[in-house]
UniProtKB/TrEMBL annotation:
Pathway connected to this protein: Amino-acid biosynthesis; beta-alanine biosynthesis
EC number: 3.5.1.6
This protein's UniProt keywords: Hydrolase
Signal sequence region: none
Catalytic activity: 3-(carbamoylamino)propanoate + H2O + 2 H(+) = beta-alanine + NH4(+) + CO2; 3-(carbamoylamino)-2-methylpropanoate + H2O + 2 H(+) = (R)-3-amino-2-methylpropanoate + NH4(+) + CO2
Pfam assignment, any one: CN_hydrolase
Protein name: Beta-ureidopropionase
Residues annotated as domain CN hydrolase: 71-343
GO biological processes: beta-alanine biosynthetic process via 3-ureidopropionate
Length: 385
């Protein structure tokens, strides 16, 4: 079964001779990405609690006038812990405990910015289209228990944390949103970014719970660099990636929950293309495992009613603006990926390729302004002969 296939990297390393493997990695990943040494304490913690930990380095060219801007970024992927029939409080507490341990490992690795997967505190229950008990997972972005936990961890480890939650907006009619909360390394609530694009495909019936976000393409200036959050389905929209770059992001996180039968062939392409096209680092993050719910549900793809989600295939990775990328984490295991990056590479890629200089925002703006009008007619030149 595809769910038992551990990773593309493991398959390549097992079956391709070392000399050929270097050429394969050059073509697939833009070259061999150097390994980052993982501290012994972090390794022991990962072994004790059964999650993998991988580290890589992506460097920039040495400059005479500008010092390196070295940042260590961490991304996590994980399965749920408790059964979906357990009380909501028990399910969330179990995941809080798991991610607290993974955050400790990230801190031991010197991580400066840590991003969790999409809606990390809960099962991905949107396929059920049921409101109870699932809406109980929603919480305030500013003062909810998950944000409070992240603030404690951020202060403890001097680490920026990006936390994707189901938000309950008490100010505006108790509405729900798919929201990424950004906590500064001092534990201060910096702000939030809501999911711009909502899927209506297969088992992903998310518009039953929330609609498209209203925060635009906000970028957060942190102590370690300018970051943004392109939540899940937004990775399928190049314009969405583009706007974070236009607004100055140097690292864009893409916390996701996506399954093998739906999107896996696209997974290694979209974030990497975004990193190249927009001259920033892109971090693609997915969850792992199959989640089972108490009641059967149907989906939009003709399948018979079922209780299980498809397989969340993990494979989280980091892509760089020069086209290189790290290998991915496992398809089947919880994991922490640490990437040490030099943010000077963003500017160096802009100088080298000139994509930002040669883009035509004026042309796009004019064309898009016309395209959204109700009487729009595409400028198609027809052969009338």
């Amino acid at each position: 079964m595809s769910s038992e296939f551990v990773s593309l990297e493991q398959c390549l390393e097992t079956h391709i001779p070392e000399q050929e493997l270097k050429e394969v990695k050059r073509i697939l990943y833009g070259g061999e990405v150097p390994l980052l040494t993982i501290p012994e304490q972090a390794e022991k913690l990962s072994q004790k609690h059964n999650f993998e930990i991988k580290g890589y380095q992506i460097s920039a060219a040495k400059e005479d006038l500008t010092s390196p801007r070295i940042v260590r970024v961490g991304i996590t992927q994980h399965s749920i812990v408790a059964e979906t029939t357990a009380p909501v409080s028990a399910q969330r507490a179990a995941i809080h405990e798991k991610i607290t341990l993974m955050t400790e490992a990230a801190a031991l690795c010197g991580v400066n910015i840590l991003c969790f997967q999409e809606l990390w505190t809960m099962p991905y229950f949107f396929c059920t289209r049921e409101k109870q008990p699932w809406c109980e997972f929603a919480e305030c972005a500013v003062s909810g228990p998950t944000t409070q936990l992240c603030q404690e961890l951020a202060r403890k480890y001097n680490m920026v944390i990006v936390s994707s939650i189901l938000e309950r907006d008490h100010t505006h009619g108790d509405t729900l949103w798919n929201t990424a909360v950004v906590i500064s390394n001092t534990g201060y609530y910096l702000g939030k970014s809501r999911k711009n694009h909502i899927p209506r495909v297969g088992d992903f019936s998310e518009s039953t719970y929330y609609m498209e976000g209203d925060t635009g393409h906000v970028v957060f200036q942190t102590h370690f660099g300018r970051i943004a959050v392109n939540i899940c389905y937004g990775r399928h929209h190049p314009q969405n990636w583009m706007m974070y770059g236009v607004n100055g992001a140097e690292i864009v996180f893409n916390p996701s929950a996506t399954v093998g039968g739906l999107s896996e062939p696209l997974w290694g392409v979209e974030a990497r293309n975004a990193a190249v096209a927009n001259s920033y680092f892109a971090c693609a993050i997915n969850r792992v495992g199959v989640e089972t719910f108490p009641n059967e549900f149907t989906s939009g793809d003709g399948k018979s009613a079922h209780k299980n989600t498809d397989f969340f295939y993990g494979s989280s990775f980091v892509a760089a603006p020069d086209g290189s990328r790290t290998p991915g984490l496992s398809r089947t295991r919880d994991g922490l990926l640490v990437c040490e990056m030099d943010l000077n590479l963003c500017r160096q890629a802009k100088d080298s390729w000139g994509f930002r200089m040669t883009q035509r925002l004026d042309l796009y703006a004019s064309s898009l302004s016309a395209a959204i009008q109700p009487d729009y007619e595409p400028p198609i030149i027809k052969d009338l002969c």
